[in-house]
Queue: 2 jobs
Job 1
Amino acid sequence: MIALPSAKDLRRQARDAASRCGVDLDSFAGDRAVNSPINGQPLVSVRWQHAADVDGVVTRAGEAFRAWRTVPAPVRGGLVRRFGELLREHKEDLGTLVSLEVGKITSEALGEVQEMIDICEFAVGLSRQLYGKTISSERPGHRLMETWHPLGVVGVISAFNFPVAVWSWNTALAVVCGDPVVWKPSELAPLSALASAALLDRAIAETGAPAQLSQVLIGGADLGQALVDHSGVALLSATGSTRMGRSAGPRVADRFGRSLLELGGNNAAIVTPSADLDLTTRGIVFSAAGTAGQRCTTMRRVIAHVDVIDELTDRLAAVYRRLPVGSPIADGTLVGPLIHDAAYKSMRNALEAAQQQGGQLIVGGRRRFADEAPDAYYAEPAIVRMPEQTDIVRQETFAPILYVLPYRTLDEAVALNNDVPQGLSSSIFTSDQAEAERFLAADGSDCGIANVNIGTSGAEIGGAFGGEKETGGGRESGSDAWRSYMRRATNTINFSGELPLAQGVEFTV
Ligand code: UN1
């Protein structure tokens, strides 16, 4: 049995939460249903914009850019500070919308909003730290330096699984870097997008920043395509499938735009014989089953030493058997629904393929609550023991399937970790420092994120986030990811009163 609130109650919750954030959903009413994965029923219907609208939106963003780029960066930080305060005030409202629209359990939905608050704090500090270098010149009486300037309009395409946090990583940085943002959220999650954007609009109005600094495009893939191709978009930051990135990346490059891609992951943990299996089990379960396996950082593979693989698999299976699957807004649930029927179908297909390729289904994989909620897709997270890393294991299936593979030597384990097309996140569970260092070394994990004794998901905002190979190479969020949102100028300043040329060149007439 699943205790589901009535469809009417879910609709009321969505409406109330949006309204508290300043969004009157009636003013966006249209013919496109926004379904809740909790019951598979419409929460509300919205109007979609058209590709023809994009040019005007980008042009207005360009106007905002020309005003905003000369505002001092610490003043720009003031806007982000106010936005962060509003996010704190409305954390529960946004969390509710995230749960209703994409099915995240309450704690993870609130965690997503916390990431938004955290990146705002980071960006406010950053607004006084957009440092360039001073470099020694080879010529007397000269100085070299670099200056970082605002880049231009930033287009953000975000995915359903982090419907608001990924936009805020981009937006908080872009705004302090002097750039306006045009956002095309996932068509599956327009409500949390409208609510987040309304809070930013309020901060913009209160601080007197240009109104068109933040704009949202509600609609389908054609809007994203128009952003990809628009020469007025200086940076396109896109999160989604490798297929989407393979199309968008070259098109942005073709017009000499900049892109920041955050695409698929196929993240693994290596478990060595010295690993603390209690901690390892907890770390794996959160990363593999959390968010119903729908994070790009979700752990999809465990590469376990032959001496521990049986015990580890037994421990994982025991925890999986008691994982509470159910309504994401009910107390105690840890695994909510998949986003839609296609996600469930891809899970079923992958499980079938894995078994054809020699895999043994250890636990999970069944659909739950199909009688009470025929249009919602709740699935038991699955564990499949694989004899080797077959084709299906090398693919990213955006669902909670964990493949467990054996290894004998650490070199073999590292090779398996790296032998997938994606390169986002990875971890090693070990108590042996040499093994940990080997995993983190130049010939270790080839991923953008490599962890020790924690899972692959749930990164903090302070580090740069992103990965290599088919993950797309982009870095968002913390560290020096801000540089993608600015252009660098190298300046040579001559205060010598002479004109010596570099490289000893003589050119006197
Ligand atoms: C994503 O799934 O697109 O590290 C982002 C994590 C989160 C972000 C995931 N902080 O799991």
Job 2
Amino acid sequence: TQALLQRVRAHEGLGAFLAVDEAASLAQARQADERRARGEHTPLLGVPIAHKDVFVTRDFPTTAGSRMLAGYRSPFDATVVARLGGGADGHPGAGAVTLGKLNCDEFAMGSGNDNSAFGPARNPWDPARVPGGSSGGSAAAVAARLVPGATGTDTGGSIRQPAAFCGVTGIKPTYGRCSRYGMVAYASSLDQAGPIARSALDCALLLSAMAGPDPDRDSTSLDRPAEDYTRGLDEPLPGASAGRPLQGLRIGLPTEFFGAGCSADVQAAVRAALAEFERLGATLVDVSLPRTELAIPAYYIIAPAEASSNLGRYDGVRYGHRAAEYTDLLDMYRRSRSEGFGAEVQRRILIGTYVLSHGYYDAYYLKAQQIRRLIAEDFLRAFEQCDLIAGPVAPTVAWAIGDKADDPLSAYLADIYTLPASLAGLPGMSVPAGFGAGGLPVGLQLIGPHLAESRLLHAAHQFQ
Ligand code: GLN
């Protein structure tokens, strides 16, 4: 803990951390030492990790990257934080030590970490470039070796895309696999927590502690016991040999993921990774996800709609920023929210309120929900022909900080390959696949059927 705290200080220029508190981290480390002295030897005990700043924590402030929550401190830990750390409610906790809170786009809205109210996080491979978003601080911290693992959240790609841009591994589990209790809400029907780490094995260790039902606190958490995702990672598939451990695995390649929209350097790195999967025994088959393009308009209606409702709670009354001067109650709401929310958040509240309003609900929100169903059906059909789906995570490598700042639409379009799995609630993973333009990392995306996390992690681990 001390060594990494020193490393975090030495790399402050990366902008990966929003909060550190040496005394709080060392107190947690001492507790882990005591558990070890009592004979406990769980794998994460005493391991320093850090949390995306959308997970509420008792020992550190939580801002969600927003001025609205500057200085806010939660009276409790998010379920995921408690399960990875000191535990709560009869759950022992894995004993990991929190090193601090990680930068992110404001309320997890963004793809470059450039929507953070507290300044950008930078890509360790090239500090002039974005680390991806919205979990940019998490991916940058892991890539720069400030922490061996971190939490992230993924609503439309925010674990997979920053992991790809920073050359690290990340997994977004099936919707509902991790509790959302204590996660600052963006779009509740899509938000999902997951780990970012150096390898599939490390992701498996972290996810084993994070996942599992939380029936009293998150009614959408799945009623399925926690599992040990590290089990069998080193074994060949049933019936396969050690030399070709993935024999029998059918990997579907959606034609829509390999079209003109994907840059040539990314395609080349992804194809090379897929050739390696073939050498490991997997078979590549062509599949189709015909509604891929519709994922963008559907997501950018559904997510802002839910966000506009979730963010209604920031009224300057109960918690969060309150304007210093105002004339009456309405003026207080208006000023507090105008001062507290950044431009992208305000844009999405406006879009969301519009698509939910009387007369437009049927034309936009309802249609988007219908498209969402069709996209889920596309996957069901594709999974009749394959066990996993593979493709790029993003159409390009990391772009320069500021490049898409004045053009939100171009950032939305870059989410094309991550949004379909999000809308369908499916688990998705980003695995380092090699390098593209400028020597920057490229991620291979693996998508599985519902609850196929262990299948994804196994394939990724064998590949790594
Ligand atoms: N880039 C997407 C957005 O801006 C996804 C963000 C996320 O997954 N939190 O909404």
